[in-house]
Amino acid sequence: MRNFPLSAVAFLLLACGSAKPELTVKPQQTATATASASASASASAPVAVPVSAPDSAPAPVLALPPLVSLSLPEACVFGAEAWRGSADLTLLSLRPGGEAFVVVTGGRARLVVPTGAAGDALLSVDSGGVHVTGHVGSQAVVLRPNRAFVLNGFAIPTMYASLSYSEGQAGKLTVTHATPSELDLLGATLSASVSCEDVGLEGGSFDAHDLKQNMDEKLKKDVKAFYQGDRVELRVEPKGKPVARIVLKETTLVEVFDSTGGMSRVLFSTDTLVLFGWVKTSALKQAGTLSGYGSGSGHMGVKDVTWPLQARLRCDVDVPVFVDHGGDRLTVGSFLKGTTIELISSTDAEAVVWARSKAIHPAAGVEFRARMADLAGCERVK
C-alpha cells in the first residue's frame, strides 16, 4: 500500500467537501438589519405621541393626583349655562385662599357652596372642551333671586338684584344685599335665610311688586313722591322704631296704601329693591313728571400666550389634567373627548398640555399636565 503525506490528505478532504467552513455575521450587520425592520414598521403604523422606548419592561402608569375638593359638606349646588361672577375675571385656586392656577371669564358652571360661614366654594366650568374645577372665594360669587322674598322685613330684591351669601346650612343659605345708596340702615345688614331653590346663578323671572305683604291693590289710595334731597325715616310698624332712613338722590314715586295716626304705609322702588313700610304722612309730596336713566358696563378679556409645540392631538376619550402649583399637585379637570390638545413638552411619564378655550385661561407660570398613558391612543392632527 502506498503511503500519502499528511498534507496531501488534508488537501483531498477539503477538495471533496467533507468539511464545511463556519460563517460569521458581524454585529454591525445585525444592527443595520434590525434598524431597517423597525423603520419599516414605523412607516406603516404612525405613532400618535413621541415617547421613548423602554429598555426593558414598561414603567408603571403614573397615578393621578387627588381631585380638588371641599373639606365641608355641601349646603347648596347651583348651575348656570354662562358663569358671571362679581368681576370680569374669576380666579380659581387649588386650596382655599391659595394662588390662582386658572382664570375664568365665562362658560357653563356648577357651583357647590359648603356649610358654615362664607369662605371658599367649589366652582367647575366647561368651555371649548376644557373642564376645570377649583376653589373660588365667596366674594366672587353673585347669586340672584329665583322668586320674591323679604329682607329685614321691609325690602324685596327684584329679579335684577345681586346677592351674596354669609352662611350655608344643609339646603339653605343666608343671603345678603348690599345697602343701596338711597338707604341709611339703622340696624342689621339686609339679609334673609332662604332655601337653595329661592336663589341661583342666573335667577328667575318675577315681579317683586307682586309680593306686597298684604298691600291689596284695591286699597291703594294715592301716588305721591319723595323729592330729591328728602330724608325720610322708614318703619316696619306705624309705632315702631325706624329701621332705615331714606336718602333720595332723585325724586321718586311712592304708592300710598293705609294711613293711620299721621303715618302712611308706602311702597317704592330703588334700583334693585322694592321697599315698603310706614313713613310720616307729612313726608309725602305731590308727584310730578319723572324721567329715568340707564347705565352700562364693559368686560375685560384675557389673551392666551403662544408656545412652541411638539404636536397637536385629538383623543376619543376625556383626558384628565392636573397642576403643580403653590406646593400642591392636584387633578383639576379634563380635556373632553374630541378636543384639540396642544402637546408642549413631554417625558416618559407625563406631558405639559393645553387646549384653547375662550373662557378658561391658565394663570401666569402655571402648566397643565396629562399622563402619557392617557395620550397614548390619541391621533395627531394639524
- Give the domain tally: 2
Largest sheet: 11 strands, antiparallel
Q: Figure out the total of helices.
A: 3
- Structural class computed from helices and strand pairing: mainly beta
Oligomer: single chain
Number of strands: 29
What's the mean pLDDT score? 83
Q: Give the spatial strand order of the biggest sheet.
A: 1-4-6-7-24-23-28-26-25-22-29
Q: pLDDT under 50 segments (min length 5)?
A: 1-48, 290-300
Distance between the termini: 88 Å
Measured by DSSP, the beta-strand proportion falls in 35-45%
- Radius of gyration, Cα only, in angstroms? 37 Å
Q: Globular, elongated, flat, extended or rod-shaped: what is the shape?
A: elongated
The percent range for helix content is under 10%
Could you walk me through the main structural features you see in this protein, from its secondary elements to its overall organization?
It contains 3 helices and 29 strands. The longest helix has 18 residues, at 27-44. An 11-stranded antiparallel beta sheet has the order 1-4-6-7-24-23-28-26-25-22-29. It has helices at residues 6-15, 27-44, 372-375; strands at residues 74-80, 90-93, 100-104, 108-114, 116-117, 120-127, 130-137, 144-145, 155-157, 163-169, 172-177, 183-185, 191-195, 199-200, 222-226, 231-235, 242-247, 252-260, 263-269, 273-280, 285-286, 311-314, 319-325, 328-335, 340-346, 350-354, 360-362, 368-371, 379-381. Strand 16 and strand 17 (242-247) form a beta hairpin. With 382 residues, it is mainly β. It folds into 2 domains: 74-140 and 307-381, no CATH class; 144-286, no CATH class. Mean pLDDT is 83; it is low at 1-48 and 290-300.
